[in-house]
Amino acid sequence: MNFSKIIFSFFLFFSFLFANEKTIIIGLTPNPFESLIEHMREDFKKEGYELKIVEFADYILPNKALSNKELDANLYQHKPFLDEYNKNAKSDLVATTPIVIAPMAAFSQKLKDLSELKDGARIAIPNDPTNESRALELLEKAGLIKLNHKVLKTPLDIVENPKKLKFLELKAAQLPRALDDVDVAVINSNYALGANLNPVKDSIFIEDKDSPYVNFIVVRAEDSQSAKTKVIDKVLRSEKLKKFIEENYKNILIPGF
After folding, report:
1. What is the helix, strand, coil percentage profile of the chain, to 5?
2. R_g of the chain computed on alpha carbons
3. Environment class of 46 (CB within 10 Å of its CB; exposed 0-12, middle 13-18, buried 19+)
4. What is the pLDDT of residue 117?
5. What CA–CA distance (Å, rounded) separates 6 from 214?
6. pTM for the whole thing?
7. What secondary structure letter does DSSP report for 167?
């Protein structure tokens, strides 16, 4: 390799490093999270960073990508889910900025009210530990079942099930498509919205607005005080984003800050 080629290779390498340093990459699950972050693109630019959004179709890959340093942050999960992931994956991801509460809701194409459920009805719920527990807690609040006092619950933790309801555990992204095949599906707001289901208008039972399941920006522990993380927190913890949530997702999403 001649000298000019060596110089050019170094130029490309350092150009890549500089470009990467001035780009913030945030991983998301489908809307509404993409629209929230996209709305703040110009604000990232004002802080000197280009914004890159990477969308994922499940709840595990965004954390893996973050741990592998393919992302600078992700937005899609609440603290109970993150704690369970860190425990199982032996990772040290940390939650920084609380962004939004996305209420979980029960949907049906066959019923107008949960009181119409017949004995042996089929109910689809998420199969990841924290959202499965969250869905069962929602059904308990609706008076359909009673659960034991474990932190994370599965159908095995149902201690009273007077209607002998049957539970189908599916990946969260599959739940909207399961509506044709079950009596009720308990769906996270982001996947409901992605299937054109309004959690307030179209559901037959919805989580209270005082839900503790706030979705956070999550970063690697080593980067919790980095320049990029500080910019992410500054841009997203803003009146502009709060107003956007309130005006565009009224009664669907609740600002978490």
Report:
1. 40, 25, 35
2. 21
3. exposed
4. 97
5. 50
6. 0.74
7. E
